[in-house]
Amino acid sequence: MTGSAGADAAPAPRVPDRVLFDDGSVLALDKPAGVSMATSSRPGKSEEEVVSRLLASCGLPETAPRPLLVHRLDEGTSGVVLLARDAATHRRLSEAFQKRATEKTYRALVWGHPVPVRGETRAPLGRDRKDGRKMRVREEGKPAVTRWTTLRRYASVADLEVAPETGRTHQIRVHLAARGHPLVGDDLYGGGTRWRGVRDPALRAAFAAVAHPLLHAARVVVPALGIDVEAPLSGDYAALLGLLAR
Asked: Is-catalytic flag, 74?
């Protein structure tokens, strides 16, 4: 039987653009760059505050019960974040991440052209003793593995697809910077001022305006739960690629 809605029918609720997936158990959001997922030092409030901040940034209201965090992204990183709507799902997702039974794919815009165009970095990471904000390659650090593939080269930068096997703090940023290819916009690891060497005025201005590392969590797959979620490139990343390709 078919028919049309009456004039007084309530419109379907609009799903915010940043909701990538929601089946009642798993909520996948497209986190904007600039939203911090760092916790505060107040007991019992840390995770609640992070979730509230994340929901608000994606245009979602607070709900009861509040979704549970499964993993995090750096403040400057955009893209897929998974949350669980119940404790059982949270356990299963957390276990999948802990056992590395997930597939994570990132996009990264880096200075220079990595050689070879496809490769792998295996280098342990630990806290920088001189600057507590930073991580660095340290012999006594925790094992870390990052794989990359060059998607396209431009005059001064390269667009990469990156697959981290491990999930250390700042892993992709540090591994790429250690190879001499810091991320565009990454002040902490040497990529924030490379734009000064760009000759094209329009590109120079565009690079100078980038306010965060151009790293995007493009896809997360959790095979055990049948989850495969993708997020479109952030607006500034996509706009810069368009300018580079002109």
From this structure: yes
